[in-house]
Specification:
There is one protein chain. The chain has 12 helices and 19 strands. It is of the alpha/beta class and 415 residues long. It has an 8-stranded mixed beta sheet with strand order 14-13-9-12-11-10-18-19, covered by helices on one side. It has a 7-stranded mixed beta sheet with strand order 5-4-1-6-7-8-17, sandwiched between helices. α6 links the parallel β7 and β8. α5 packs parallel to α6, α7 packs across α9 and α9 crosses α12. The model has no long low-confidence stretch (mean pLDDT 95).
Length: 415
Amino acid sequence: MNVLVLGTGEYVTGIVDNQQSQSDKKLGVIGLVLFDLRRRGLVNRIVLAGRNGAKFPIIRQHFIQNIESRYKDMNTEFESFPEDDQVDSKAYITALDTMSPGDLCFIFTPDNLHNTMAEKAIERNLHVLVTKPIVQDLKDNINLFLKSIEKKVLVATEVHKRFDPIYADAHHRILGFGDFSYFYSYMSQPKIQLDTFKKWAGVSSDISYYLNSHHIDFHVWAMIGKAIPISVYAVGSTGVCSGQFDIDTEDTITLTVRWKNLESGNIGTAIYTASWIAPTSDVHSQQRFHYMGTSGEVVIDQAHRGYSTSTDENGYTSVNPLYMKYTPSASGHFAGQSGYGYVSLQTFVEAAQQLNTGKVEDPSYFDDKELATVNEEFLTTAILQAGKKSIESGEVVTIEYTEEGIPQGYRYASM
């Protein structure tokens, strides 16, 4: 199978503003994983598509200096669109036309571009993996689902927390904790990241779509067939983005969501908070949650795994090689195949391969498993969009459902 990646930013390449990122993703994630999957024979042709072709010589040099020279037998060659001397926001369409049915399309671009790009990829019978959130509008989410059924392709969201062994274990334990009662999550990134996000922050998306989507997806995953969200009230804090960075957007967003347990009718409460104005600390991203059911609870601090390092260059840091292990093996090869950032991508590649070979006939086979398939994202999208509507209106937003239990729209309810 061949892979087309739409987007050339930090998560794909490790490059920000034409230089290596200063975050914990200096080598990127998507490009590195794909190069290793190719080394292992799981994918073939790798294509990157962006808007500004002038970035590609910088990206190629970065890959050679920081990946090929670091890992033994790692080839970082890739095809690119547009040409190095061109700027073309539609270059991804030209790139899509070079792919064949059954190939893969990874979409790692600003949130507002996801729907159009995914739709065009599905139309060409490609299997599509989209970074979270899959889309920003519930209608678009449903539309992508219907198109994926029509074309019989796999469409999913890349939410690697599902593959974190501790989160996965918590997911299974939660199923036995009775009715849902309370959930709290917090996730942040340092304010220096706003320099990375300044082109789209507050313009095409906000911090809730960007970070709350992680834990909302996890909570929704744990509640499949158990409970549904019924209303959302959102509030935002301001000051740093607008003052220090001249970006008109919220610093921190909190969603308070009422859930209803399907069997008992009992009400549960969830609070999801995300911020991008945190100070620099021992981790790039603070991230934790507390889940309480009627017969059990679980607390996870994902940012701190009891493993820390200290160097003259970087000072004290808490590290998490369970996500991406960048240190080479004793033989000099890349050794991060067990990291959940890697496993998330490999799982999608292998699922697509099963469909292409006929081992699995219907993409719905992958529902209710580890992959966040497009129809599993309905509730996540509904919560995020209702949160956006609540911030804009200052009102509680109720989520309305069809008789089949599919979210279909929203209704405003005064507090």
